[in-house]
Specification:
Helix 1 crosses helix 2, helix 3 crosses helix 11 and helix 5 crosses helix 6. The protein folds into two domains: 77 residues, GMP Synthetase, Chain A, domain 3 (2-Layer Sandwich); 247 residues, Rossmann fold (3-Layer(aba) Sandwich). With 357 residues, the protein is of the alpha/beta class. Helices cover 33% and strands 19% of the residues. The chain is built from eleven helices and 15 strands. It binds adenosine-5'-diphosphate (ADP). Adenosine-5'-diphosphate (ADP) binds next to helix 3 and helix 9.
């Protein structure tokens, strides 16, 4: 808590928010510590399992109250039902204690959830997530994407999303729509440099909220762009939902494959099916001559996939247009679907769809 004065002012403002069963949110035992950073405010409300819906309006009112007490801050209020019901005058819950394992529950309206993971950052995991999601659509699938990379959300930039997602009166988010995808990201709600406060239970509550308290409608596939590595969010996601499986993105460099193997091991330990490995930045095609250059020693990922007994979904070229169009919020598969660079994503998505079927 960086600013106790502001936290106290927010708590005072929460005194005006009523909770089901009577009393104010400020006095409610399930209210977590109020975390205040220079640009963000975050707290969780622990409720009895099954009471999440009843607390939707409480969250909306709490968000509004916190927002007026802390103007200029981004406010994120999470509802968490993975705790024992709050009782008596015990310690406050939410931010302080790790969430216990809760049974996996399906997400309303979503048939299959695919996590896209990588061992380390910068390998193009988010770029692949977005383009794969876009390339699944022509397979006749209704697709959404959730940016769970709390520590470096890049889906807003990749899809050109602006502003915050709309929240209905009952506290449910309406997802963004971009290029025919339903999309949600933590990005618009928290500053990248504040991500440190989201570790542990807060990160897991934020993920739960984005996943379960978004009106996804009917989706065949939800693609989740995970943070790199093997941290809290990965474990929390695997505990919260039954995943159809994970796709691992790696570059050809050995170093990256060593990292990728850690991610692969994690999913194996958690008994999550491995749907396939993608080799990104696999080779470079000179725009003038069309010659192909295997500048990073291409083929490492395919060999690793064979060794690990997991499907190889394909190779994506290192292509300046992929970078430029990604940075400009116009992903290649949506804006240039017939180009060779898009063909690689489309082939990978077909292979993925076959795994899912
Ligand atoms: P990650 O999610 O693994 O951190 P990003 O998807 O954010 O990685 O990609 C990192 C950078 O690499 C971005 O600037 C992106 O545009 C670029 N990039 C990703 N894939 C490719 C590719 N195949 N060709 C060229 N640039 C790429």
């Amino acid at each position: 808590m960086a600013d106790p004065k502001l936290a106290n002012a927010i708590k005072a403002a929460l005194g005006a928010v009523q909770v089901p069963g009577g009393g104010s949110l400020a006095d409610y035992q399930g209210l977590s510590e109020i975390i205040v950073t220079p640009s963000a405010v975050a707290f969780a409300i622990a409720v009895e399992p099954g009471m999440e819906g009843a607390f939707g309006p409480v969250r909306a009112a709490a968000t509004e109250a916190a927002q007026s007490a802390a103007p200029g801050h981004k406010v994120l209020v999470s509802i968490t039902a993975d705790k024992a019901p709050p009782t008596g005058s015990g310690p406050s819950v939410g931010a302080q204690q790790p969430p216990p394992q809760s049974p996996q529950q399906p997400v309303k309206g979503i048939k299959k959830i695919v996590a896209v993971a990588s061992g380390k950052g910068g390998v193009g995991k988010s770029t692949c997530s977005v383009n794969l999601a876009l390339a699944l659509k022509p397979q006749g699938l209704k697709v959404g994407i959730l940016d769970a990379d709390l520590y470096g959300p890049s889906i807003p930039k990749l899809l050109g999303l602006e502003g915050k997602p709309a929240m209905r009166e009952d506290g449910i988010f309406t997802p963004f729509e971009a290029f025919g995808l339903k999309a949600m990201s933590i990005g618009p709600m928290v500053e990248a440099d504040q991500a440190v406060v989201w570790r542990g239970p807060m990160a897991s509550s934020a993920l739960r909220q984005l996943l379960r308290e978004t009106d996804w409608g009917e989706l065949d596939v939800l693609v989740i762009d995970l943070p790199p590595g093997t941290g809290d969010i990965q474990i929390s996601l695997c505990q919260q939902v039954t995943l159809a499986g994970a796709v691992i993105v790696s570059t050809p460099q050995d170093l990256s494959l060593i990292d990728a193997r850690k991610a692969i091991n994690m999913f194996q330990r958690l008994s999550i099916p491995l749907l396939g490995l993608i080799e990104n930045m696999s080779y470079f095609v000179a725009p003038d001559t069309g010659n192909r250059y295997d500048i990073f020693g291409h083929g490492g990922a395919q060999k690793a996939a064979t060794d690990l007994g997991m499907p190889f979904l394909g190779e994506i070229p290192l292509d300046m247009a992929i970078r430029e169009q990604s940075d400009a919020g116009s992903p290649v598969v949506a804006t240039d679907p017939d180009a060779p660079k898009s063909a690689a994503f489309i082939a990978a998505a077909k292979a993925l769809a076959a795994q899912l079927a």
